[in-house]
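Suppose a classmate hands you a notebook page containing two proteins, each written out with its sequence and a corresponding row of structure tokens. How would you begin to make sense of it? This section walks through that situation. The first entry is reproduced here exactly as it would appear on such a page.
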Amino acid sequence: MSKSEALRQQILALVQEYYEAEHSQQPFTPGETEVPVSGRVFDAAEMVNLVDSSLEFWLTTGRYADQFEQAFARWMTVRHAVLCNSGSSANLLALSALTSPKLDERQLRPGDEVITVAAGFPTTVNPIVQNQLMPVFLDIELGTYNVDVSLLETAVSSRTKAIMIAHTLGNPFNLDAVLEVANKHNLWLIEDNCDAVGATFNGRLTGSFGHLSTVSFYPAHHITMGEGGAVLTNRPQIKKLVESFRDWGRDCWCAPGVANTCGKRFGWQLGELPEGYDHKYIYSHIGYNLKMTDMQAAVGVAQLDKLPGFIAARKRNWQLLYDGLKQYEEYFILPEATPNSDPSWFGFLLTVRPDAPFSRNELVQFLEANQVATRLLFSGNIIRQPAYQNIPHRVVGTLTHTDIVMNQTFWIGVYPRITAEMIAYVLSVFAKFMRR
């Protein structure tokens, strides 16, 4: 063993010891320890991989990223996973790829319409606006909090070219109904699967149905790299377009540090460039630099091994909350799984009924004061947000349920570090509030 390899092994052994000394889970003290809505869950394996990657000092996308992309694509039962620096960037890349002139008559052009929902996360909608497309907002169902599919057919116009919606808090939307409309009208489908890794619809993983889908690896999500995301697709052409937009918009598909993958680096003539212009510096799209670092991917490789256990813990915690809160159903609309689905829950949603003797704000403030963290359902009604007041858009039908969500809905955590003891405490806080 070389001296450098021996030192590496010593360093990694010390990292293991450091984790055990510094990051062992602290005991839970009811009323003092916060019950968060989300957070990172890791052990020494992630820290060892992170330090191992840093010792190579490659920094940009490298061997760990390659390993993760291949393993995650297999896990998600798709052909291709393209890593990027966030789930929001993944959404931007997925939709931007569909604006490529290389798609000929299926290219999205400024003014084309994309169907989505108004009750969601901003960066599901932002790529539509950023690409000068028109968002068409639909209402949602209460209970599942997913798109009201009865509105889909009405929403399609001669300018409609795509559907881009999320599986809300890990609960799949009705893919049968959405795909029926998408296929009938030759629409692109982008699944925002950021909150739903591991969910299934008719026994098949969400994120494997659409032409493209997206995933986030932010600490709140099912697995984390700190920051990070991925675009998934089964189509090699779409993969290449996503990579182009991610990598400055270049036409070349060489990996970082690699040259002449195509075997004719100086044999291209594109646009109005001279014959033989270096292919590494030919740009076919107006792109970005949205790559992730190999250190982030190293963390993801370790996290992926834990994913099945994480999903099982989320389902367990969701069920414990459901069973404990069902007694208060006269005051709450409880969450429900979409028919034919098995959600991979991101959180536990509650809507305070209009005739309840308390408001959402009163309950949320009580929970927070008692160390039970809460969150609202993202933007509520996004067209009521300051940034979206003047964007061009269409609304189909009314947004009645979306406004109810904005005023009366919130969620609490189910993430894997939440224990049965913590769930019992959360239920006791609800019971204390109800006794008031």
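The notebook's second entry, a different protein, reads as follows.
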Amino acid sequence: METQQIKQRIIELQIEHRDLDEAIDRMAVQPGADELKLRRLKKRKLQIKDSIALLQMQLVPDVPA
């Protein structure tokens, strides 16, 4: 992936992460919320966070030790 493509993908994932965060917050306060769906949303949010971190590492040039 080119640098610009990586940056664009990071932005897309950050938006999805923020949207999931808001959805989780709304769902958590609802009485009788679907716990399974809530757990799946949280898991997806963590996967997105990991993906963002991996992409950001690709943007950092390798520095010899």
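A careful reader of the second entry would note: Residues 3-59 form one domain.
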